Structures are given as structure tokens and as C-alpha cells.
Amino acid sequence: MADSVRAQLLARLRAQETETEPEEIARALAALGHAQAARAPHPDVHTAFLANVLANQGTVELARDRGAAVQAIGRYLYQRFRTHKLVAGNDPRLAAMPWRDGGVLPRFGAAEAGDAAALSYAKLGVAETGAIVTFTGRANPGRNNLLPEDHLVLVNREDVVSTLEEAWVRIRKDTQAGNWPRGIQFIAGPSSTADVEAQLVLGAHGPRRWHVILVGDTPTSAVDAARESLAAAPL
Amino acid sequence: MKLASENFLQEASAALNAQEKVARRNLLGQFLPLARGSAASKYGDFDALRAHMKRVRRHTSEHLSHYLQQFEEAAVQHGNQVHFVADAEQLNSKVLSICQAHSARRVAKGKSMVTEETGLNELLLKAGLEVLETDLGEYIIQQAGETPSHIVGPAFHKSLAEIRQLFLDKHKLGERSLETASEVVEEARGILREQFLAADVGIIGANALVAEHGTSMLVTNEGNGDLCANLPPVLIVCTTFERLLPRAEDAVALQRLLVRSATGQPQTCYTSFYSGPRREDDPDGPLETHIILLDNKRSDILASDYREILDCIRCGACLNHCPIYIGVGGHPYGWVYPGPMGSVLTPLLTSLEQAQALPNACTSCGRCAEVCPANIPLPDLLRDLRQEESVQRIKPARWRHGLRLHAWLLRQPRLYQLSTGWTMSLLGWLGKRRGAFRRMPFASGWTGQRDFPAPEGGGTFMRQYAGRRRGARRG
Lengths: 235, 475
Ligand code: SF4
What we know:
The complex is a heterodimer of chains A (235) and B (475). With 235 residues, chain A is of the alpha/beta class.
């Protein structure tokens, strides 16, 4: 059944197309170019990223280095859940962090139904949309992004790109050796719904809170600048 | 889904009389266009983005066989099983056979208009499977035994009070207040979470298929589609070939258009690209994935003059901007797709004869085409369908004769001007006292809801126009 449907469909499509060499199609496609990215809320890419994370109902924090990131995570967990527990993927970058200094007790692996908080180390941050990008796999099981109450994300300063097109340039580079991940997830906010009388409610099926920690030497004024740029152009 | 478009006029009249629902739709009809307008202007040159997407679409459809094969090849390489099906019945039985092969009992579904189109749930339920819609809006209408009234917000027609009562009846959870939207969402979250964890099969749709990578793009805010794609051991993606785009960058352009046009957000919470089953040392994800590509008359549409409707990205903007849709809501349209896009798609995917009322439910105001991110000339397509109704003699004889008479009159300018002039004077005289008519012969449908204003003095537009031109020449 399926084979003949396939053959028939392709034959019908071909009957309407002018036969073109694949190289020719590729040239025509390249000539179309790419679309423009959305206007940024701030000229500085990191400030724009932070502003869009905030616009997406996320919370932000800066950490100078990984040590400071651990401290920040410890504080967050204690304030939210009075706990030090956390689930995180088997990301070598996460394994190498000084957890004990911040009093955090991570469990490495896939999130389970009862896990309150999960941590991901993002591949990328995208300033245009305030999204972080993760690949599913050992380093970040897909369910870790979805099951917990709170999703914490670390993203390195140098991994923040300005547009979605730049994000795809990086993704292509990272997946060259035929190691295409099962899923590539762009996450921009806690899960939300507007299905009840068009009122926005956070925490639909996935995380209720989404906390992004930008790791690297970012001036502390960047967060204020991000807030100001949002206030100037409320979303 | 069963077609009920034949009753459009009766259902529409009934809908116009339900005051509370009309008021809520009016609010949506104000709020959603505002949100879309502001998001589009914040983006920058939104029209340039629309034009770019149109060029990409044209290129893709000119080489569809190429991109379809490229997609298939990449998807198979990732470990997917790709199935081509011709119609609703084939899609439904394919899904059922996959479920049965795994002795599945529970199915968790993300939002999928394609499976609404094929009426998949009905078949699965009949076969004894538990099928649960997980998009909150879809879940609400599934519990209520209703059909979607909007392609983005399927339960927009329901008030919080109605949803509250529905949940109190359906969920046996004892006394609770359930008075806010948050409480309602919280309750659904708890119930659906268990289902995600217990489901044997997940079913989702796709917002785009990326040919170069063999991936399907899924855009959601709730994260329910992603849970369906990540938790159950078997994943089925039900989609259609017109979702194909050549490159990831093209999916990105679509994402920019779709989200702003649909909800006025610059970005949804989740935008995922799924490629297949779990990799060798992956700790999670489905073990088996299927992609089902449905034709269901789309290759006919592609070969017709209506092909541009296949560019539709299901954003719902044309619904939100349509005075008819906002007036009567989604249900009178009688099938899966309402509003302007539905009035084009329904006759093409089902039957023009049975859906003949829909292309006529249009005032040609043109707002839909103004905002459609895919630049689909919806009013033109609707006009062409109306013409086809005449050619195929589907329109009622009274309409056809009336139109023929009108066409004849238009071709006699003198007689036309005379007769419209007389009619106006007569109406003006008859309605002098009240300034409006409460009832008129042949127009009870119109005057049922409002008064018809009596013409004021000054003559027809043509007469006034000619007078002014004469005046201008003299002055
Ligand atoms: S026809 Fe255009 S406006 Fe309407 S849903 Fe489709 S893409 Fe959106």
C-alpha cells in the first residue's frame, strides 16, 4: 500500500515539475538567501539575550566562573526548595564543577517524576529569542528539560549568538561527524498556556520556573540594562 | 471528522444569538489582532519576512519531489520508518496497526490538526485504546465531547466557569475551589502528567519538516508535544508533505512568522527539532519512531489553481481578523478548519457541494489577506470557489438567477443607474419616518440582527460622483 502511494505521489509531483539537476536546485535555493533576524532589544548581544530571557518569563543571574555558578545554584535550590538536590545530565562540564563548595548534591542521569529541579549546560544561547539550546543525549536527557518543577540552565558567555541563523551555523559545526542528536531543543521560558480564556498561566506541563545563569565575565550592570531595555519596549 | 458544513447558516444564526459567547469572541477579536500587530511591528520589516517566505515556498513546491526524497532519505538514515498514506482511512489504520504491533493500551497525543482531519481518535477508541489529548485546549474539548473552535486555541469558546464545571464533573477529586485559570491548569497538569508517564505511544504533528536534516519541527508553549515526543517508547509523527522546507534556516523564518501571527509572542517556549529514535547510548527517548505522510487530496490541490492554500502555516491570524469568524465562532463551519482558511480548505478537502455555504460566508473585506503570514490571497480563492459553485450549478437556483440578472443589469449602465436611483428614492421615502427599516423583504437574515438604514437624500453614489466631477470642471 504505502509503496504504491509513495510512487504515485512522486510521479504526480514530477509530472508538474520541470526537471532540474540537484546542483541547479541548490544554486536557486542559495540565491534565496536567509530572512532577517528580529530587531534586538539592545545593541549588546549579551544584554539583548538577558532582556529576552526576562521577556520570556525567565529569571537571570550572572556568574563570573563555574565556582560562582555553583554558589548561585546552591542559593537558588535552598531558597526555592530548602534542598541541595538536583538532577543533571552526564555532561563532562557539569561533572567537573566544584559542587561541594556550594553544598549542592547533584545526581547525574535522567530526571524522574519526583525531581524538583534539573540543571542543563546549554550548547548555546540565542539573543534574538532569549532561547537556550540543548541536544538530547547522555549530556542532557530530553526529559530533564521537561519533567522538573524548575529548570536551571547554565550558558557560557562565548556561546551566546545573536541570531537563530548563527545558532544553526554552530549546530551544524557541532554535529559534523554524523553525530546528529535525536532532538535539538530551543527553550525560551517556563512552560505556559493561554488555553483558559486566553489568560497566561505558567507551568502548563513542563517547568514552572526557568532560571538562566550566564557564566563568564559579564558586567553586573548588564542585568539592569536588560531590564531597562524591556521597560522601554514592553512586550 | 464528520462534515457538518451544510448547516452553516442555521448554526451561525444560533451562534449570533448566544450573547455571552459573542461578547467573549469580540474580546478575542480585539485582543489577538492587537497582539499580532504589535509583535509584527517589533520584529522589524514583517512584510519583507512574509515575502521571503513566499519565495522559499514557491521554490520548495517547484521542486517538491526533490525535497520529499531528500527528507525521506535523511529521516530513514536517522532510523525512522517513513510511511506514505493516501487518505484518512489509511492514516488511521496505519496508526492503529503500529499501536497494535506494540500491544499499546495508552496513547498520549500532542495537538495535531491532521489527525483531527482524519478522525483518528474515534478509530483508536473504538479499537479499545485509551487516547488522551494533552494540549490543554484539546484536553478540555475532548472531555466535553466537543470539536475545536479555533486552530490555535481549540477551547477559546469555553468560559472559565464552563471549564470549572466540566472538571468538577469529570475529575473525581472531591471538594475544591477551582476558581482561577491557574487552579484549572494545575489540576489538568496533575492528571496529564500521570498519562505522559504511563503512555505506550506518543502522537504529535509537525509545524515543519526540514528536508536537509530529515527532522520535524514542533512549536509549542505548553511542552505537551515534547513530553509526547520524549517519554513514550513509540513516537508517531502525523504530517503532510506541504510542511516541507529545504533548510533549517527556512524553518527559522517560518517560526518567526508563525509565532507572532498566532499569539503575538516573539517566540514560543519550546521549538524542537526531532530526528528519530534514541541513539545508541541515549538514556531516554522513544525506541521506535514513525513518520506518516498523508496526502488526502493535497496533491490534487497542488495541481489546481488553489495551490497557494497549501502554504498555510495554521497560525489562525485569518480567523482572528475575520468579522464572520469573530461573529459566529468556529463551530458553524462544521469541520476541522474554520474561518477564511477553513472556508477554502474544507470544500477542497471534503466536497464543494456539501460545504458550499462556506465560500459564501465572506464579505471580501480582505483583512485575512492583509495579515496572512503566508501571503495567501484568501479572498481571491474564496471568490474562485464561489464561481466554481455557479459553474458546477451547486449554488441554489435562486442565487444563480439573481446573480445572472445582476450581471446583466451591470452591463446596461443607463438602466442600472436609473433603477438604482428609483430604488433609493423609494427606500428613502418609505423609511423617512424612522430613518431605518426593521424588516425588509428577501433580507430577513440581515435585518434579524440589526436595522437597515434608510438612504438619505443626495442620490446614488454614481449620481453624486458625476455631480462632483461636473462641479470640479466648472470650478
Ligand atoms: S491562511 Fe494564512 S492567516 Fe490563515 S491560518 Fe493559514 S497562514 Fe495563518
